[in-house]
Structure to design on (231 residues):
């Protein structure tokens, strides 16, 4: 299986406190992105890094030998920041089957990542949060399959949100992309089209999820990852 890891963007919120790419900020003794990669399940044999923006060269230098712990790295460039669905679609030329998609600055529990890749079909990672209006909200049926997804809803829909990890296949890229009201290509819109086409998408709840978008979240991750509960 291939893993598509999003490492583009400006990191605007983190830039208020730190310079350089937030993916390379140290937390609990190593860069954030290495925590992300070290939790990948053994089924992942190849890494596809989607890079772009002002920190692209720093990311490329960090992985200059073209591998990470025995996994080959392919670099592809997102030329314009047009949304996460657009970023994942950059990987089309090299995807060969089912693939694990994830953002490169959020750290996921390894058990839920294993559960995602071991599903027989499509799956997305979910976590319960206090402020779901800031995320893509997930609604499931009684069997845990996705029936509805809403990006940053103004009214309460659910406290279960997408945490940035998913397992898709090449059908994801066949769905027509239409910009949302925010002017971006949204991943939840692609899921709804897959479901309308007859696909089922299971929601796998994360054992833990550490989003790292600002200094406060970085400090939370530092505390958590240095504790015995990690892993």
């Amino acid at each position: 299986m291939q893993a598509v890891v999003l490492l583009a963007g400006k990191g605007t919120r983190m830039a208020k406190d730190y310079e350089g790419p937030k993916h390379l900020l140290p937390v609990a003794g190593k860069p954030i992105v290495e925590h992300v990669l070290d939790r990948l399940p053994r089924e992942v044999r190849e890494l596809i890094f989607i890079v772009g923006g002002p920190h692209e060269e720093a990311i490329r230098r960090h992985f200059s030998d073209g591998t990470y712990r025995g996994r080959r790295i392919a670099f592809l460039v997102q030329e314009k920041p047009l949304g996460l669905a657009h970023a994942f679609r950059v990987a089309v030329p090299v995807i060969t089957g089912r693939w694990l998609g994830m953002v490169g600055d959020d750290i996921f529990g390894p058990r839920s990542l294993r559960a995602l890749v071991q599903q027989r079909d499509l799956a997305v990672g979910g976590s319960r949060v206090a402020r779901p209006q800031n995320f893509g909200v997930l609604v499931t049926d009684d069997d845990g399959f996705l029936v509805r997804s809403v990006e940053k809803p103004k009214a309460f829909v659910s406290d279960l949100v997408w945490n940035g990890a998913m397992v898709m296949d090449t059908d994801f890229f066949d769905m027509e992309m239409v910009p949302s009201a925010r002017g971006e290509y949204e991943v939840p819109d692609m899921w709804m089209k897959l479901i309308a086409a007859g696909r089922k998408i299971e929601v796998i709840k994360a054992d833990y999820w550490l989003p790292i978008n600002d200094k406060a979240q970085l400090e939370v991750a530092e505390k958590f990852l240095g504790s015995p509960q990690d892993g």
Q: What stands out?
A: Residues 2-225 form a domain with the Spore Coat Polysaccharide Biosynthesis Protein SpsA; Chain A fold (CATH 3.90.550.10).
